[in-house]
């Protein structure tokens, strides 16, 4: 009986590892594609902010979203992200302020400032879009994050197109690890575990 349980456990772990590997490769390939097209809104997923200033990652996402906005991909931008441990600022408001300083009218920016995770952001974005009768969005995030975000938004009925920010310098092995982490998160979400 013990041996059968161990064999079953080993088979389950092997299946999980295989699934993570397949989805990791899929995520890595998808990260190279920019699907930007005309949409109702450009969604900028949050990343760290430092005392009211965007981190380099958040700044790169905002700069990419700004370029899309200036190219008239969408008439609105939606910045996301909660406090993340900072009692004075949220990622969403830091994103808004950054965009306003670069000439975007405040009326063109929607701010979501409660989300702490990707799942929270997706839930909030889809609800905001539903309430505002917005049906399509271009999602700006990092390439390794784009696949999971797009699929989660689609599951909520949003037509989402990914437009990853230009990648910064990064060790290839580290990038594969980030893709594997997103693959695990995606697979867990698919079976109902939200992280």
Compose a concise summary of this entry.
The protein has 195 residues and is an alpha/beta fold. 52% of the residues lie in helices and 12% in strands.
Which characteristics define this entry?
6 helices; Rossmann fold; 195 residues; single chain; two-stranded antiparallel ribbon; five-stranded parallel beta sheet; 52% helix; alpha/beta
SSE diagram, text form:
Elements: H1 2-30, E1 41-44, E2 49-50, E3 53-54, H2 56-70, E4 77-79, H3 91-101, E5 109-111, H4 118-131, E6 136-140, H5 143-155, E7 159-162, H6 172-190
Parallel strand pairs: 1-4, 1-6, 4-5, 6-7
Antiparallel strand pairs: 2-3
Helix pairs in contact: 1-5, 1-6, 2-3, 5-6
Q: How would you sum up this structure, described in words?
A:
With 195 residues, the chain is of the alpha/beta class. The protein has six helices and seven strands. It is elongated, with a radius of gyration of 18 Å. It starts with a helix and ends in a 5-residue tail after the last helix. The protein has one domain: Rossmann fold. Helix 1 crosses helix 6, helix 2 (56-70) packs across helix 3 (91-101) and helix 5 (143-155) runs parallel beside helix 6.
Derived from helix and strand composition plus strand pairing, the structural class reads alpha/beta
Topology, number of strands: 7
CATH class: Alpha Beta
Q: Specify the oligomeric state.
A: single chain
Lateral arrangement of strands in the main beta sheet: 5-4-1-6-7
Give the full name of the CATH homologous superfamily: HUPs
What is the CATH-assigned architecture?
3-Layer(aba) Sandwich
User: In terms of per-residue confidence, which ranges show pLDDT below 50 for 5 or more consecutive residues?
Assistant: none
Strand content: 5-15%
Give the ordered list of helices and strands: HEEEHEHEHEHEH
